[in-house]
UniProtKB/TrEMBL annotation:
Superkingdom of the organism of origin: Bacteria
Species whose genome carries this gene: Streptomyces violaceusniger
GO biological process: DNA-templated transcription initiation
Pfam family, one: Sigma70_r4
Protein name in UniProt: RNA polymerase sigma-70 region 4 domain-containing protein
Domain RNA polymerase sigma-70 region: 96-143
Low complexity: bias regions: 157-169, 231-242
Gene3D superfamilies cross-referenced by the UniProt entry: Winged helix-like DNA-binding domain superfamily/Winged helix DNA-binding domain (1.10.10.10)
Biased composition annotated in UniProt, kind: Gly residues: 197-214
């Protein structure tokens, strides 16, 4: 009887988690790709980083107690990247590759995710003024790069603004629950759910949580929906920020 209840609970948790990844995996992968500075289509490091974050979320799934799993995964993703930022200093050719890891992290949280300055500062353990200065420096660098390529005349469509008040395609993406524009989850998102579920379940069974060993390199898929934006759009959006 106990074994049956445990199996039922594990099955329910796996289904809930897989549904979460199907809806939010693409958005989270795009954020991870911006962080690692990789180009679209070559996201191996971002996939490993995201899988580790998802595995930790899965291991804590039953203890979230009403907490938004997307917010939890985003915080974990940011914390993991901050801890491993030295691994991503070498330019990889991605949208934000010209920025330092810290600049990427602040820019992604502030403009792509629309996290408030105070929340970003608390998450990174930095003063608000420091977060503001880093974000301004990163936006200036992106704007200068866009100007050098002659793209300063390109602005994102009106009405797309992040919560920070900046007009930007790096701003807030679709809600975490939305799926792809075709109405189905990204095909590779299921692999991330499976990899993270297996890693999290194994770690949970041993009481060790979902550690770095969960990084199995699963693919979380493309960013959900057409709102994902291209690399060029992200650069233009950052360049257009005041």
């Amino acid at each position: 009887m106990v074994r049956e209840r445990r199996a039922a609970r594990d099955g329910r948790r796996a289904r809930e988690f897989e549904a979460f990844v199907a809806g939010a995996g693409g958005r989270l992968l795009h954020a991870a790709t911006l962080l690692t500075g990789e180009p679209t289509g070559d996201t191996e490091a971002a996939e490993r980083l995201l899988t580790a974050a998802l595995a930790r979320t899965y291991a804590r799934w039953d203890r979230l107690r009403g907490e938004d799993p997307y917010d939890h995964t985003r915080r974990t993703l940011a914390a993991l990247f901050a801890h491993r930022g030295h691994r991503y200093r070498r330019p990889r050719g991605g949208t934000l590759a010209r920025l330092t890891p810290q600049e990427r992290l602040v820019l992604v949280l502030r403009l792509y995710e629309g996290v408030a300055e105070e929340q970003t500062a608390a998450a990174l353990g930095l003063p608000v003024e420091r977060v503001r200065a880093i974000c301004t420096r990163a936006v200036t660098a992106m704007r200068s790069a866009a100007a050098r390529r002659g793209t300063t005349g390109t602005r994102p469509s009106a009405g797309t603004r992040s919560s920070a008040g900046t007009s930007s395609s790096v701003g807030r993406p679709p809600s975490a629950g939305t799926q792809s524009s075709a109405g189905t989850p990204p095909s590779t998102g299921g692999r991330a759910a499976t990899g993270a579920t297996g890693a999290g379940a194994g770690a949970g069974a041993t009481g060790a949580g979902a550690g770095a060993g969960a990084e199995t390199g699963a693919d979380a898929g493309a960013r959900a929906g057409a709102g994902a934006g291209t690399d060029a759009g992200a650069e233009a959006g950052a360049g257009a920020a005041p």
